[in-house]
Amino acid sequence: MQEDILLKVNDLHAAIDGREILKGINLEVRPGEVHAIMGPNGSGKSTLSGVLAGDPRYTVTGGSATFHGVDLLSLAPENRSHEGLFLSFQYPVEIPGVSTVNFMRAAINAKRAYLHETPLSAGDFLKLMRQKRAIVELDNKLASRSVNEGFSGGEKKRNEIFQMAMLEPRLSILDETDSGLDIDALRIVAGGVNKLKTTQNATIVITHYQRLLDYIRPDFVHILYKGRIVHSGGPDLALELEEKGYDWIKQQVDNE
């Protein structure tokens, strides 16, 4: 049923600097689902995540995207976040001079204000922070430092999932979260994602590799190529890609 759809993307087209990247994306995500989006470099995976999150570098040239019934594309980026959309960046930025504690408290209270809720007290916020930090084994010293400043690659990704835990989004988009992670960091990050999964939220995992999907098991796998989702299937599709590579998909699409 329509009301069961959390995210509905219909014939979405988008461009950057006048060059079309997305050429008609169709995607439906329901609560409780995990969707993996895979594809070769330049296929439009990160563009899709940026467009959904409201990255101003991209221009939507056609189509629509609704998020729990709301016109997503009409919202400012911060309001997309307040409505429950979270994007974990492939390359998390450093914010010198702003502690993770203050950053997260400002983010949570901004969301609460948007939802007409009272701000969290300092005590309640710190209690929540302790609970969520434990999910991704984030050291208290890291949480007290400036956002991502001097963090290793694994610590930055862990901090991203900590932020996700704090904000409790309806839909999380993980853009190549596994990029640059060793096995231990990958296990912790993926474990945090799995612990945060409920029947009320959903996740889109954007990745090149099967290895992340060994930890975060998808319900659906989609292959993005030349700006379109050209093939969808279950978890076994990722294993097939691991075995065959993308050439068979490219040949199939280019011969059509």
Could you characterize what this model shows?
The chain is α/β, with parallel strands linked by helices. The chain is 39% helix and 27% strand. The protein has ten helices and twelve strands. It has helices spanning 45-53, 77-82, 100-114, 122-135, 140-144, 153-167, 183-196, 210-213, 236-244, 247-254; strands at residues 7-16, 19-29, 34-38, 59-67, 70-71, 85-88, 95-99, 146-147, 171-175, 202-206, 220-225, 228-233. The strands form three sheets. It has a six-stranded mixed beta sheet, with helices on both faces. Strands 2-1-4-5 form a four-stranded antiparallel beta sheet, covered by helices on one side. Strand 4 and strand 5 form a beta hairpin. Helix 6 runs parallel beside helix 7 (183-196). It starts with 6 loop residues before the first strand and ends with a helix. The model has no long low-confidence stretch (mean pLDDT 89).
